[in-house]
Amino acid sequence: MTSLLKVRDLIVEYPGRGLRARPFRALAGVSLDIRPGESLGLVGESGSGKTTLGRAVLGLAPVTSGEIVFDGREIGHLSHRARRPLASEIQVVFQDPYSSLNPSLTVAQILAEPLMARGVAAKEASRRVGDLLERVALPSDAARRLPREFSGGQRQRIAIARALALDPRLVVCDEPVSALDLSTQARVLDLLVEVQERTGVAYLFISHDLAVVRHISHRVSVMYRGEIVETGDGEQVTARPVHPYTQRLLLAAPVADPRAQAERRAARHSLRESITAPSTAVMS
Ligand SMILES: Nc1ncnc2c1ncn2[C@@H]1O[C@H](COP(=O)(O)OP(=O)(O)OP(=O)(O)O)[C@@H](O)[C@H]1O
């Protein structure tokens, strides 16, 4: 099957600060594919470049070189204006459900805004708002309320409904459940899976938590210092990790049993030395 999203040799460098500062290479040649209707999980420790990759796909990070091809079309170097039509194809759900929704708009206004911006008439937009609320299992009277009247999990449902409003084919989910408690996390993940089964949307699902990523992803890519060091199905990556960094990531995941935790600590210690890290600084 052809890729919906194809990333090749992507390099992203952020400008350095100060007069003689070197640029910082956050992505050092990343390649990946996402097929229509697929979830690709992107896991890695803080600072490994996950958000930068998501932002590059969304046109929000500076692409130094490489290709980002969506549905056969190169989108990595488009101007802001040329990207605008893509908003209905590629959407995003951010981590923080408290700051990602405009606090002064009602839920109906938040959900109708992207529709009306694309010329959908007010009456039709209002009907679609009802459908969207139903799709994310929120009551229809939610439409009249403000974001502050909802819990974190409910707000994330509103953010998901907004992302789905234009029937996108790809949603970048950047740590969408990290700010939620465990049981709410599970319900929001189940919702994302259900939405995918119903609509065929693809996800680039970013998280530092392998357990969360495994729950939702068909395949998992592991990032380390701006590179993808391993890709496989969730079972393969967690049961038979190939790269030492993936092994360390697994060992760092919290477990309930203190003895198992101590064994993991010892294993982690001996692995630490064996990881040879590629340099991400740009040579001048
Ligand atoms: N706008 C920016 N300017 C300069 N450096 C940046 C910028 N954004 C990110 N970085 C740096 O790029 C690297 C990758 O950051 P990124 O946010 O992509 O990592 P991440 O894996 O998503 O981390 P986290 O899980 O903490 O969000 C980090 O070292 C970060 O400090």
Automatic annotation (TrEMBL):
The keyword Phosphoprotein does not apply. It comes from Agromyces rhizosphaerae. It holds the Pfam family ABC_tran. InterPro entries: AAA+_ATPase, ABC_transp_ATP-bind, ABC_transporter-like_ATP-bd, ABC_transporter-like_CS, P-loop_NTPase. This is ABC transporter ATP-binding protein. Residues 262-284 are annotated as: Disordered. One of its GO terms (molecular function) is ATP binding. Belongs to the ABC transporter superfamily. Residues 5-250 form the ABC transporter domain.
